[in-house]
Amino acid sequence: MSLSGMVGDAEPSSWHAERVWATLSELSHAAVRTRNAMDLLMLISERAVELLSVDACGVLVRDPSGVHRAVAASSVSPALLDLLGLHATAGPLVDTLGAEPVDIDVSAAEHRWPEYARRSAAEGFDAVHVFPLFAGDDAFGTLNLFGRGRLRPAERGMAQALADLAALHILRGDVEENAVPIMRRVHGAVQSRATLGQAIGVIAEHLALDPDAALNQLREAARAIGAPLTDVAASVAAQGEILSVVLDIAAEDGQ
Amino acid sequence: MTETGRWQQLARLLRSASEGGEIGPGVAEIAARFLRVEGATVMLVSGDLTTGTFGTGPLATALIDDQLALGEGPSVEAISSDVPVLADDLAAGDVIARMPMFSATARGKGVGAVYAFPLRVGGAMVGVLTGHRSFPGPLGPAEYADGLIVTGLLTLAIIEEQANVTDRHRDDRERGPSVHGDVLDDLLQIASGMLAVQLEIPLVEAHVRIRAHAFAEEKSVCEVARLIVARELRIER
Question: What is the ipTM of this complex?
């Protein structure tokens, strides 16, 4: 359940502030200890939707052909996946991507990107906020937040912090000297994303679930086992040993 | 040249090199050129087996044969790696520790560095592209980026070949703006996982089946994937 539904338009309560602090701690901890960027980016996407008054979050990265593709998102519902794809290829991202965060009013984009505007409306979004992820002068990716209306100033700060954490993790100090490690981590995240999708399909078929529910089973199993989501996904996609563990845990949940 | 322009140039070159629809030595030559290496091979993989190797010459092919015989080396490691496995310097301590027999054998053949790029879509592994140089040294950012572009195009080409998708003169624009074409589409991965379980087949075969079905039905791969995920389409044996 989105936290924003409880906070509404009031100033953040101290309880909310504690939650923000706990989340930042959790993410900083993960940023230092996570080996695969996709694990951190998935966590950031999940938490962004919990903490901010937005309904969806997607992290996109630029692949070697210059195209931006999603490597993490708060949901794998087909509708959001489609919208993320449009956002990158037939939407305002390419026009607006620059050095600074951008707020996009989707209805204003209607003439230029009608399909994008239509799909956004269908999902209930009228705004998207784009926060670039930087290496030197180069935006190698973006944190994208989808919702209704504007972000409050405190939320903008939080969103920027999340984007900075994502960028810092991928860069790990390799800012300008050598682009190869950055490309390697981005490529690794892209491959892990594909593996995650395959694992979602395996679980969805075994348990007759939709993609989001299948993803939740994978997340739960990863938490229960104490392993990174990407490792669990790799084993499930290969239908290896972890698959039966995931199915057992799901059975205990009554799935 | 823009990133987009470069991959389209490479796509055209690869397509003309694989005229007749087959991945062959011509493809390895183009890969070698773009990686700026002295020789290259494309090794096709199916499950635990290698099903074919095409190279620019006998040394390139011998490096693969050696690795397979010894069970070690960058190309062997690449089979289970998401990212390229680069042995920048076969005389370096850490490389010798990881692949003692292969590094000695390769150096004995006058090779200083070996770079292996896995050809895969997540858990679906289809091959390895390997390049070598006589002198040690890392791949620069442009070479690494070109390597990733070549692997994206090669992965798609191998999958299309397995799916008997033969229309090689299709307009580049139909592939969409990305070097990966639609290979990395999220819904396609979910659909592949589902089909792999439904038909009890490996992920690669599931991906190939979806592509073949799309081609036969004149639908896009993404459309077929969406239908599978929505459980509105079931592909039978």
Answer: 0.89
